[in-house]
Amino acid sequence: MKTVLLIDDDLEVQQLIKTYLERESFGVYCTTRSTEGLEMIKAKKLDLVILDIFLPDGNGLEVCKEIRRTSKIPITLISAKGDESDKVLGLGLGADDFITKPFSINELVARVKAQIRRNEFIEDYTKENGKKSDSIVVGPLVINVESRSVFCRAEKIHLTAKEFDLLTFLAQNKDRVFSKDFLYESIWGYESSGDSRTVTVHIRKIREKIEKNPQEPKIIVNVWGIGYKFTVNGSL
């Protein structure tokens, strides 16, 4: 049984999500407080966290950041405020998805399923490819697939789970051009109109960590009108 932790102080929304997820044979833990949620993440085997941004004892974005310090579990942020800045910040802090209230409960359930499937695929892929080749070495980067670690110019780079997946995918397909929509569907595992900008956020974060000058990228470059490609270009 797959298990989900729901951290939301809106008890009506909490019960609705819980009911629908349990109908799909999920185990669901619920709490209204971030402190208890963080303790549950440490104590229980979970497959995904649904996290509200506004909580009575803290900001969900800070909770997301704290989760990412120790765990790569998929995180779906939910918010009653459709502020794009919150979405960009949340994704930049390591969230895997963002959905605004009021939302279709069926869509939320579908997204939860997709995130868990995608995470399982990545884990299986990592294990299989780790046996064949521990590392990808391209230019200044060394990507260890099995340990999910990255070094750039001999320095360890700390990436979120999705940043690692996106960088690895591009590095394994050096010099191939991919659209944002294709990368979004490949890494996040489902289609959602408008959310390909999630890729833009993650590319920006990766560039800040691996490029000498993120404003003039030499590793992950834009291909005008199409998308991005991983290349080795100029002084790195």
From TrEMBL:
<dbReference type="GO" id="GO:0032993">
    <property type="term" value="C:protein-DNA complex"/>
</dbReference>
<dbReference type="Pfam" id="PF00072">
    <property type="entry name" value="Response_reg"/>
</dbReference>
<dbReference type="InterPro" id="IPR011006">
    <property type="entry name" value="CheY-like_superfamily"/>
</dbReference>
<keyword id="KW-0902">Two-component regulatory system</keyword>
<keyword id="KW-0804">Transcription</keyword>
<protein>
    <recommendedName>
        <fullName>Stage 0 sporulation protein A homolog</fullName>
    </recommendedName>
</protein>
<dbReference type="GO" id="GO:0006355">
    <property type="term" value="P:regulation of DNA-templated transcription"/>
</dbReference>
<feature type="domain" description="OmpR/PhoB-type">
    <location>
        <begin position="133"/>
        <end position="232"/>
    </location>
</feature>
<feature type="modified residue" description="4-aspartylphosphate">
    <location>
        <position position="52"/>
    </location>
</feature>
<dbReference type="InterPro" id="IPR001867">
    <property type="entry name" value="OmpR/PhoB-type_DNA-bd"/>
</dbReference>
<keyword id="KW-0597">Phosphoprotein</keyword>
<dbReference type="GO" id="GO:0005829">
    <property type="term" value="C:cytosol"/>
</dbReference>
<dbReference type="InterPro" id="IPR036388">
    <property type="entry name" value="WH-like_DNA-bd_sf"/>
</dbReference>
<dbReference type="InterPro" id="IPR001789">
    <property type="entry name" value="Sig_transdc_resp-reg_receiver"/>
</dbReference>
<dbReference type="GO" id="GO:0000976">
    <property type="term" value="F:transcription cis-regulatory region binding"/>
</dbReference>
<feature type="DNA-binding region" description="OmpR/PhoB-type">
    <location>
        <begin position="133"/>
        <end position="232"/>
    </location>
</feature>
<keyword id="KW-0805">Transcription regulation</keyword>
<dbReference type="GO" id="GO:0016301">
    <property type="term" value="F:kinase activity"/>
</dbReference>
<dbReference type="Pfam" id="PF00486">
    <property type="entry name" value="Trans_reg_C"/>
</dbReference>
<keyword id="KW-0238">DNA-binding</keyword>
<dbReference type="InterPro" id="IPR039420">
    <property type="entry name" value="WalR-like"/>
</dbReference>
<comment type="function">
    <text>May play the central regulatory role in sporulation. It may be an element of the effector pathway responsible for the activation of sporulation genes in response to nutritional stress. Spo0A may act in concert with spo0H (a sigma factor) to control the expression of some genes that are critical to the sporulation process.</text>
</comment>
<dbReference type="GO" id="GO:0000156">
    <property type="term" value="F:phosphorelay response regulator activity"/>
</dbReference>
<feature type="domain" description="Response regulatory">
    <location>
        <begin position="3"/>
        <end position="116"/>
    </location>
</feature>
<keyword id="KW-0418">Kinase</keyword>
<keyword id="KW-0808">Transferase</keyword>
